[in-house]
Amino acid sequence: MNSTDFNTISGSCTADYRILGSKFLAFGFACECAKTFAEQLASIKKLHHSATHHCYAWRMNPHEPEEFSQDDGEPSGTAGLPILNELRSRSLINCAVVVVRYYGGTKLGKPGLIDAYGRSAALCLDEAGLLQLQPGIILEMSCGYPVKKQVDYLVTQSGAHIEDAVYTEEVSYTVHAATGTAPALLLALEKLNYLGVSCRTAGEVLITEPL
Fold first, then answer.
1. Using one digit for the tens of pLDDT, what is the confidence trace for 134-184?
2. In 3D, which of 208, 17, 3 has the Cα closest to residue 115?
């Protein structure tokens, strides 16, 4: 998978799965940092403080992907990993799923637990609104009015988005370009330097589009 193949959750989602008396409640939500996840997890634990287990997985940072899973007392690999595998299989990042289990008195065994946690996460994510997420580059550029149409054409052809435009003695743009296409756009604009076109990178950004 390359860095432009990720999706993320729009908002939050939930699901309820029951088997042999055990109740599994799944909560999916967007999160871009560990602090946000910890706050959401604490809220879920407070709401379901009497649950037997609070298992989860998250994936974050499309620039340098990180992921983590937690079994929270279930046999190793039977809870957090199945949840994580659902996130992986859907190419999801900057989001998490927490599955709360209320034990129903009948042991499910390792295969049963793997299926239950994975199915709970899948049902939850099936309800999620999704956004395509691409790591991008912020470009700041300026040009004179005589070459504005030429610059606009290059930006449009690259699939980049003009996020801000200022019209004074010259045209100044703030543009968000996907990481994969930004170098070609920069090169094309550099070829117009002799016409007074200037462009520089100004940081990283995440570009989201509805699926």
1. 788 999 999 999 999 999 999 999 999 999 999 999 999 999 998 889 999
2. 17
DSSP 78: S
Residues contacting 7, CB < 8 A, separation 6+ = 90, 91, 92, 93, 130, 131, 132, 133, 211
- Which tokens is 30 given? 């967007």
The closest alpha carbon to 114, from 138, 146, 165, 78, belongs to 78
The distance between the two most distant Cα atoms of the chain, rounded to a whole number of Å, is 76
The answer to whether the beta carbons of residues 7 and 87 sit under 8 Å apart is no
CA–CA separation, 125 and 129 (whole Å): 8
First-to-last alpha carbon distance for the chain, in angstroms, is 18
Q: Report whether 128 contacts 13 (CB < 8 A).
A: yes
User: How far is residue 83's CA from residue 100's CA, in Å, rounded to a whole number?
Assistant: 12
